[in-house]
Structures are given as C-alpha cells and as structure tokens.
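Open question from group meeting: does this chain pack into something compact, or does most of it stay loose? Before anyone orders reagents, we agreed to write out a predicted structure and look at it together. Recording both the input and the output here so the notebook holds the full record.
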Amino acid sequence: MNAVATPEPAAVEIVALTKRYAPGTPAAVDRIDLRIASGSYCCLLGPSGCGKSTTLRMIAGHESVTSGDILLDNRNITNLPAAARGTAMMFQSFALFPHLSATDNVAFSLKMKGVGKAERHRRANDLLARVAMGHLAARKPGELSGGQQQRVALARALITEPRVLLLDEPLSALDPFLRIQMRAELRRWQKELGLTFVHVTHSQEEAMALADTMVVMNHGVIEQVGSPHAVYNHPASEFVARFMGGHNVFDTPAGPIAVRNDHMRIAAATDAATAAGLPATVTDVEYQGTYVLLGLALDAVAPGRQNVSVLLGEAAFLSRPYAQGEAVRLSWAEADARVLGPGARPPGERVPAPVDANALRDDTAALALTL
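Structure tokens returned:
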C-alpha cells in the first residue's frame, strides 16, 4: 500500500478570502485560497490593482476582511489586531523615524511594550549587527543610504520575533544596482533566519529571483501558483504568459497557445525549407550583449495580435544577422507550444474559444498554417 504524501505545513493559509470596499462593488480580492509553506519565500506578483497589496494588508491586519479566513500556524487570526498576529510588516517607504538613531528606530516597538532601555537597546543592537549595521547604530536615517535604511527597517521588523515577515514592495525605492544587491541579501536573510517571507512585487524579475513560490494575481483572483520555473515554463493562462513576458501568444482554432521567444525558429523568407512558416517582417533589432531581441510583425494577423518577439543568442545572430524591414518566416517545435486557459478577465474583454488540446497538430508547419 502506497503511503499518502502529506502537504508541507503551512505558515499561512488563506481560505475563500474576499475584500470589497463597498457593498455591490467588484471585489478587490475575490474568494482566493492559498497555502504558504512554513519557512518559504512567497512572492505575490501582478499588475497594479490586481489585489496583491490588499491581500498582504489583510494578512497583516491593516485591512479588514469582508469574508473568508486567514490562519497562521493553524490559528485563525482573521479578526485579531495586527500586534497579536505573529506577523511583522516591512513597508515600501521603510517608514523610519527621522529624529531617532538606528538603534532607537529598531527598539521603538519594545519601548511601546515597556521594555527597559538597556534591554531594548541590547536586542536592537544585536539585530543591527546581524544585518551588518552595528557600526552605524548611532546614525539617524538621513545619514544612511537607501540600502542601509532598508537593513534598519528589516531589523525593526524582526525585533518583534514574528513567525511571518510581510514585505510590501521593499525594493521599489532603490536604484537598479542596489535593488539587485538587496534582493540577494533578502534571500540570504530569509534562509538564515528560517522565517516565512511573503513579499509583494510588481516585478517579474524580482519574483523570479527571490521566490520559492510565486502567486500570480489578476483582477482580484489567483491565476497561478507555482515555482518560478513552473510558472515561466508552463503558464496556466493567457494572462500569465503575457504578464511574465518572454512568450508569444497566438490564437488558434483550439484556443490560445504560448511559445517562449527563445524557442521560436526564424529563417529568411527566401529559405525554401521554411516555406510553411508564418510570414513576418522584422520591425526592431535590439542588441542586449549576450543576446539579440528581434521584434516582428506577423503579416496576416488581426490587429492587436500581430507583434511577436524572437530571442537569439549573440553568436546565432552574428552568424546570420537580421535587419529591420527584412521578410522572414517563423515556426516552432510542437513540444514548445503551451496550451493556455483563459484566466480571469475584466467584464467585456474577449474570451477565446475553449481549449481543445487534441486540436493542436503534431506537425509544426500545419499548426502554423492554422493561425
């Protein structure tokens, strides 16, 4: 008899969670279910207005819940005040007190709880040392760089000894170079501390770099949950494929399919071997160092669906350069085409026909000709 696998224990479990800001209005978050494994790094990802920040604020207790439940370590915290939940929030703006030193900023919550000065300073300075800020403990926020302020904000969140750390776009205020450096530090700290991190971001690159689990949201619902590899390589819906980027989405009689732009095959239109491919015209050539990104317009596709891209390695492009305005043909291996579901859509947006995987042809050329 085969043993039944038990799911990883969830630090956070969300059950049918809903948020409406007024009766009769569309839900900002619409009956979502989610389990976040203990000790994992989870990123809530999506465009502005998708419900990710609202979800984070409901977990934190900074936003009321219309209906549904939030559990932390199997304890229902839905209606508990923020301070009693076992979570801590790290805000986008860092929200440090400008007149206080780093030590006093970190120790502030302990002061509010009546902890003595010597003890709270000891604990605050221990945490500042842990995030490599011990030598700057006496400085005020205005005397610190953006990255240093972020470390102080992290130490301040950690001093409450939370079970779950909530991060609301913590890297968006940093310059691009520092953002890359700090996301590596966030990941390292999460592993060293063994805490569960729930991180809201609108950056696909940031989520891919940080997350054990990505939660892609759209119009208040969850479109897909999975590892970065799974979400990128097997998008569940047309929205996920388009939002994650790096995919071309085509409408076929069987429904929408996605093909990664680095899996597209391109050849000159004069090449007899590619006569059955999709005719297209090169519209843009962008040299990106290790690769070249080609923008193309399909020659016979409905308006709004004609722009695609092809990613070529630098060596491949240099061996056969393509120029703006050149006529080409595109194709792909059948195994590289991913059948997509429709996903969540706002009212009135076009919904493609139901997907019938059996309608996809085995032959790449035949599939291309059905578009």
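Observations to bring back to the group:
The chain has ten helices and 18 strands.
The chain has a mean pLDDT of 86.
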